[in-house]
Design goal:
Helix content is about 35%, strand content about 20%. It is an alpha+beta fold. A hairpin with a 3-residue loop joins strand 2 and strand 3.
């Protein structure tokens, strides 16, 4: 039996509690993240009274991206998105920031699976490279 307080169980509960297209979108991108990086770990961060279920977060050698749910869209924010190539133009929000980039998905929209998985893999590679010891 799984731990109901585990990050995976808490994300499952968040998805189930949405009961609309946002839950389906969050479930789909979660599956794509796991396909792109089978070693990814899940966390739930930024739990507070105004957001008691917190923010689903996917990590590998650091945060890859977060999955925030708003009334009219699901926002996937890549922690170091500004440093990632985006040849398919998935990033559509936060483009002026120096560090993060986001993908806002609205009702009826979909994310290109192969391009999204490539972005996740690039984020993993960047996180691993950032952890590598510097040569003197």
């Amino acid at each position: 039996m799984s731990d109901p307080d585990s990050p995976a169980a808490r994300i499952d509960a968040k998805i189930a509690g949405l009961k609309d297209w946002r839950g389906a979108v969050l479930a789909r991108v979660r599956a794509l993240i796991h396909e792109a990086d089978p070693q990814v770990t899940e966390a739930v961060k930024w739990v507070k009274p105004t957001n008691p279920s917190g923010v689903p977060t996917w990590e590998h050698a650091g945060i890859l991206c977060t999955g925030e749910v708003y009334k009219t869209y699901v926002k996937l924010t890549f922690a170091h998105g500004a440093a990632l190539g985006d040849p398919c133009g998935l990033f559509n929000a936060g483009l002026g920031g120096g560090t993060r980039r986001s993908i806002d998905i609205h009702e009826g929209q979909d994310v290109a699976a192969d391009a999204f998985k490539a972005l996740v893999q690039a984020a993993v590679a960047l996180n691993i490279a950032r952890q590598a010891p510097k040569r003197s």
